[in-house]
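Q: Entry one of two.
A:
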Amino acid sequence: MTEVSVWAYPWDLHDIGADAAATALQAQGANTISMATSYHAGRFLQPGNPKRRIWFPQDGTVYYSVDESRWADAEIKPLQADIVASEGDYLAKLVARRDAGGPGVSCWTVCLHNTRLGMAHPDHVMRTAQGDAHLYALCPSSPAARAYVTGMAAEISERYRPDRIELESPDFMGFDHGFHHEKDGLGLLPEDRFLLGVCFCDHCMARARSAGVPADAARDKVKGLLDAAFARELPEPQFPDFPDRALESFRSIPELHAYLLWRSEPVTSLIAEIRAATHPDTRVLVIDFAGSWWGGVDLAQVAPQCDGVLYCIYTVPAEEIAPRLDEVRRVIGPDKTLIAGLHLFHPDVAGAADLRGRVRAAADTADGFNFYNLGLVPARRLNWIGAALAGPG
């Protein structure tokens, strides 16, 4: 059976009505709902929500009933969103509906992107070579951050038994991620943005040193590169072939190249720990996309540690979708689940026919589809899903 899911926020399920939302999505061919169970802050324009047209979610919270006793000794703990108490535990509602014959349940789970927790635990966030903190990004090398994410997956899967958990941001967050009122008067080049997102926190340094990686030399090299970039009157590339050659662009600096290759280890091992902590009845999918190597993701290493990949092709041109997914399939192998992630945002997707073309391009390779997002698009646009799944016509 082709898996077809739609991403949804719990506040949208509340305002639309969980039963009404499930019925509407099933009418378009969806057989699963991917509900946000851990999420960050933002400002959301919600044409598909009949009540909350603009919504600012509570920062860095979880949308299920937390068992405080499980977290008594944890350094980093999840905070249950206020609306779980005031509006209901919609994960529990979806699971109950599934068990009564309704759609499957997938838990869309943001892992390390959490400004609230970063500000509360600055010793566990990513830090640049110059020592500055990325407060929106817990570090995958931090033991406390790793325990937080694995504990969350364990709690969700053991208490609710969803069909899937979708892991978003189990890696190193980049420098650019839409933080509040970002300022850049320098004119950062791609190489500068990348190097600003390479973490040299104490946890990374210790972990890399223990693996025999020249972490101190790599940090000094990056600090020098960033200092040079900041000193120039106008931006000037130091690595003209970046990002086209990816990490190979830095091969001329052996210490840095070795450190950049090592960065995949904390990410891969964290995903393996999450899978080990998750109940066996719940599959673990990693949300991936082109260019995730910026965050330390090596898909060939990650694939054996999880049950599959949810690969987002939101803005990939339709003619490039099939070869892109074929390459992902080649990397992860035939036995891992591969879900194609598409969105319904205009003008990226021109209309129903455009979405249908994208679905058809992915259909031969993907095991299913996830569509983004229930409340963020007009209700009438959900009809595009049904038209796309129906095939030509």
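Q: Entry two of two.
A:
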Amino acid sequence: MSERKPLDLPEPKEEGLTRTVKSLRELIDLVTGRTFQAEMPQEDAGLAEVMPFPFLALVGQAEMKLALLLAIINPLVSGVLLVGPRGTGKTTTARSLVNLLPDVERSACFYGCLPEDIAAGGIDAVCPECARKFAEGVPLTRRDRVRLIELPLNATLDDVVGGLDERAMIHDRMRLKRGILAQADLNVLYVDEVNLLDNEIANSILDAASAGSYTLRRGQVAATYRSRFTLVGSMNPEEGNLRPQIMDRFGLRVVVRGLDSIADRLEAYRRSRAYRLNPRATVAQYQEDTGFAREEILSARALLTKVEIPDTVAEAGGKIVQALKIDSLRAEFTLLEAARAYAAADARSQVTLDDLKQVAPMALRLRRSQFMIQYFENQSNEEQEFQKILNNLTSDAQEAD
């Protein structure tokens, strides 16, 4: 393998913000265009070793990659939906996020006790062991890596929300077992073929994602679990539409198409072939840059709390939503939060109109409902008819007097 050339990185944009690239998008473009060593000796892939395809080795699909990064930087974006035909890299891209995911503070307690529980409900809101730790000044949380949790295609409702622990029942004990939604807390939950989900499972995921927690009850036994996760879904529209209430819960929507350029398609083939023959060496080519990108994501997350949206920019966002005749209030929320994440990724503490332009297509597409537009138009006509009749009635009454 030839020696790697050092990155020629630009200066940070604002004083006091120590950054090494202008934006994550620039980093992705820089690394994606780098010469890839495709000819590698074949070796055992190591079936027990999970080595996702490197995110930075993905060819093209800039909007899909950007949307996923924005959702990681700012969980308030409320996830990403990838819509496109088979073989366009949706699942590969989602899985490739693994090595870019940041660290979070997790509860170190079996019962999930957190410092905010004490702040909200006092010392009695946590278990006795955590109360003792708090009194002694011992941290109740630990740093842990965000994980990618996949929902299996054959998952049952008990797999998703949890159920009775069968091993405990053998010993005549009643104990609940955590489900996938509880395991996904503070993680990324990836749902492939989200449009084919059973209604019960889809409703459970939506309710848990919306509330940030859910209560599981089996007979006389009940438990409440936190479920604050970033939802990433993918679907092939050929296989069926997505229910409107599910579609509305995804913040960013990306329409994924195949690569247009023959050169890009051949480059994707070379990289895919190299990965299948020698995944370890392929991942190693991007290991340094992946670590660098992860640091950029951490910096953006740290800066996010300081990013402000000027009133003029916020009003412009509202005008865009109004012009598109979108009723859901989630449209403005997603648009502005995605713009904040974009500015943070660009090492800036203020959102601009250009940020809105960059994220608006992802945040606002697939939100208009032709059915509702027609429904409101018909309703408006009916209201006008009512008003006309009532006005005539009032005029007739006045003439009679």
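A: Comment on entry two: The longest strand covers residues 213-218. Confidence is low (pLDDT under 50) at residues 1-19.
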